[in-house]
Amino acid sequence: MIRRDMQEVLDIESLSFEYAWSEEEFVKCLRERNCIGMVAEHDDRIAGYMIYEILNTRLHLLNLAVAPSMRRAGVGRQMIGKLVSKLTHRRRRQILLEVRETNLGAQKFFRNLDFKAISLLRDFYEDTTEDAYLMQFKQQEPGGFSPVNRIARLAS
């Protein structure tokens, strides 16, 4: 994501969210050393974007949106695939994100990509008193083995 992308990103943001980020919020976030902004392009237009933080042990997805005309075309899936490809077995093994409790479309999208809701964050958003789900994607162990908590599985 570069400065000239900002107007298209802001347009997609305002079409995608009731409580959209402002240009100042985007710029402030992207000035942070550990924040990365990426765009997906189609026919020389911005089809979608994401902003994420690189932390010591994980990646934190802060914002992701796809242009309304490009939804259900695999753009979001490709962007998340790019993010997953940045995980490593040694250091960063998970992606975390928050999703509004009322954003059922995003919850379903991330569940279909193997994210799990691991926590409910009460009164999470500053603009409303809405709760959020903390969702997590964990990279599997080498060789496809992933430890399973049998007690949690049996309890559900």
TrEMBL record:
Occurrences of domain N-acetyltransferase (ranges): 1-140
Residue ranges the record marks as coiled coil: none
Keyword Transferase attached: yes
One Pfam family hit: Acetyltransf_1
Keyword annotations: Acyltransferase, Transferase
Gene Ontology molecular function, alphabetical: N-acetyltransferase activity
SUPFAM superfamilies in UniProt: Acyl-CoA N-acyltransferases (Nat)
PANTHER family registered for this protein in UniProt: AMINOALKYLPHOSPHONATE N-ACETYLTRANSFERASE-RELATED-RELATED
Record-given protein name: Ribosomal-protein-alanine N-acetyltransferase
Source species of the chain: Blastopirellula marina
Organism ancestry: Bacteria, Pseudomonadati, Planctomycetota, Planctomycetia, Pirellulales
